[in-house]
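Quick one: structure tokens for this chain, please?
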Amino acid sequence: MNRRDMLKAGLAAGALGLAPRLASAQAAYTPMPKGWRTYQLTTRVEPTGGANRVWVPLPTFEAADWQRPGNVSWTGNAKVAERAREPRYGAEMLKVEWAADQQSPVIEVVAQVRTQDRAVEPGKGSAPPLSDAERQLNLAATELLPTDGLVKETAEGIVKGKKDDLAKARAIYEWVVDNTFRNPDTLGCGVGDITTMIRTGNLNGKCADLNALYVGLARSVGLPARDVYGIRVVPSQFGFKALGAGSENVTKAQHCRAEVWLSGSGWTPVDPADVRKVVLEEPPGKLALTDPKVMAARNALFGSWEGNWLAFNTAHDVKLPGSKEPAIGFLMYPQGETRKGFLDSLDPDKFKYRITARELTA
């Protein structure tokens, strides 16, 4: 089956209502706001290979109803260590530079953050209108998220006949769940090159691929949407092993989520990539879309998510301050630079960095 036939088949299935829906008996996955929890995220970087610059993403994204950043501090032997902000999206990072003759460079960054579960009824509520500037920013194309060509063509097919933004947003969510799959061989969280995904028909990857696909499709049909880059910090309170951190060592627990703007509910949580993660990874593994755990996650992750995750930022095409290298697609991992270029941010053992998280109690 070629790409166009595959896309048509997926659209037809959605139009016929063949996507699995919730059954009356299912696993429990029901995030709801019920109190704030405080976490401490510690990132220790000891860069190798002659690196003398590092940028550490900070979990300082602020949302009144689900994330409240707290104190950020750091220790180490850097010549320069200062908070920096990317100008377009406001992504914050610690910019670090060591002296050229520093033999054992090290920086340790400690951030405290309060979060809680979030849940909205999509399209309902009294959220204030999105400003013109925010609307424009969250409809814009980026290097990896074009909003024309194949992306727009695909999205228009998905939302054909849908009369309002809520129906369109939901149709795109269901389509991404039905037509993608999580690829365990994808490095890190993926790249997010959605044009290549659609052109080749290889609709697979991890969260930065699958949720980017949702965001790009939504933007192309006039729905403001954004990726939210962050990291899981503790296990799921609902017992879903795929949807939480497995230990205090969260060095490889980065996760990108998504949001779509809907009148009434405002920024509305959306995470089709985590539905696909449940399909692949939730024990015993390789679950069917009709499995109760999958159906529970699918229902919940359009309108809610668990507060066991910290958000860094929503930035795309990030030019790191002071870097000689080109902009990076997104900032979700520590970044390091030598005279020869970037270190591999997806190889923490070689880079070298370690991230740990723990919950603080009163």
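Residues 165-179 form the longest helix (15 residues).
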